[in-house]
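Inverse folding, one chain.
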């Protein structure tokens, strides 16, 4: 009796490729479930807007100066005292991008100590135009 040579069976790579392709198609379809915007909709363009701070915000300049409504302010206490009573719970700060972070954190802490329940930092959202 002869020993039969055992042949190794090859793995079916075509089946594996098919499964991967089907998963790819599934994820492509699943990721587009959100309805697209109406084609007739025109979005608001903000590229021509003036970059002014909102009127009831404290502006922190790069050199540490403070301003409120275009006027110089000596301290966070002076700014908080000048706010209308209905606007003292939420305070907004518009910092210059070159302003030191430590100065901004200390300013926010001072405003919280004055009685502000929330201190919001207003920033510009960087959107790339295409």
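Residues assigned per position:
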């Amino acid at each position: 009796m002869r020993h039969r040579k055992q042949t190794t069976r090859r793995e079916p790579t075509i089946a594996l490729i098919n499964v991967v392709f089907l998963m790819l198609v599934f994820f492509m379809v699943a990721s587009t479930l959100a309805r697209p915007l109406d084609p007739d909709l025109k979005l608001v363009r903000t590229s021509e807007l003036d970059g002014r701070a909102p009127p009831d915000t404290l502006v922190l300049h790069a050199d540490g100066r403070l301003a409120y409504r275009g006027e110089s302010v000596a301290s966070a206490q002076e700014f908080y005292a000048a706010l209308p009573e209905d606007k003292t719970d939420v305070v907004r700060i518009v910092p210059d991008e070159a302003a030191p972070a430590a100065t901004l954190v200390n300013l926010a802490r001072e405003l919280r100590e004055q009685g502000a329940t929330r201190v919001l930092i207003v920033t510009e959202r960087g959107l790339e135009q295409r």
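Residues 126-130 have pLDDT under 50 and may be disordered. The first strand starts at residue 57 and ends at 60.
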